[in-house]
Amino acid sequence: MDLNNKTGAEDSGQLKEAVDFVDSSVVREAPRIALTFDDGPNAQCTGRLLDGLKKRGVKATFFLIGMNAKDNPDLVKRIYEEGHLIGNHTYHHVDITKKSDEEARKEIEDTDKVISSVTGEHVEYMRPPFGVWQKNLELEMDVMPVMWSVDPLDWTTENTDEIVNKVVTETEENDIILLHDCYESSVDAALRIVDILQKKGFEFVTADKLIME
C-alpha cells in the first residue's frame, strides 16, 4: 500500500468535510431591494396595498403628498404603525425647481407638519416629484432625497402584466423600485412583484436601509 497516497486521500477527505461544514454554517444574506410608492395615501388603494404587504411580511417606503396625508390621517397612522418608512413628496406634488426657495421650503415643511402630527416624528427622507431636486435645499433642510433605479412607468398604463414584467426582469440587488399607491393596477402589480421576487430570493427593505448602509 502506498502510504503517501493514503495520507493524501485522508487529508483531501478531511479538507472536503471542513469546507462542507463551513459552507453549510455560513448564513448567506439575501440580496436586498426596496419597494417605494409615491403620491399617496389614497383612500381607495393604499389600504389594500397595506393588507397585501402585511400578509407577505414586507416593509416598503411611502412618499406621501401632504394634502393627501391631511385627508387620510388614518392611513398615515397605519403606514407608520405597521413599520413602513414614510417620506416627503411635497404638499401639492410640485416641481420644486420651478418654485422659489421659500415656496419650495414651504412645500416640504407643510408636508412634514401634517405627517409628524400623526407620527410624532420628523420626516427625514424626501422624494422630489419628477426626480428634480434643489441641492441647496438638502443643505438648508434636514431632509435627504431618495431617487430610484427601476421605474416601470406604472402611471402610464393599466396593464398589470406590463408593469410586473418590467420590474421583475430589470430588478437587481440594491435597486429601488418606483411605483404608485393611487392606482388599482399598480397595487395589483406590486403584490405580484413581491411574490415573484421573494421566490427569487430577494429581501424587501425600506429605502433607508439601502442608502445609509
From TrEMBL:
Name a biological process GO annotation: carbohydrate metabolic process
A Pfam match is Polysacc_deac_1
Keywords from the UniProt entry: Hydrolase, Metal-binding
InterPro entries per UniProt: Glyco_hydro/deAcase_b/a-brl (IPR011330), NODB_dom (IPR002509), Polysacc_deacetylase_ArnD (IPR050248)
Q: Does the keyword Hydrolase apply?
A: yes
Q: Which GO terms describe its cellular component?
A: membrane
Q: Name one GO molecular function term.
A: metal ion binding
Q: Could you tell me which residue ranges the NodB homology domain spans?
A: 31-205
Q: What is this protein called?
A: Polysaccharide deacetylase
From which organism does this entry originate?
Answer: [Clostridium] hylemonae DSM 15053
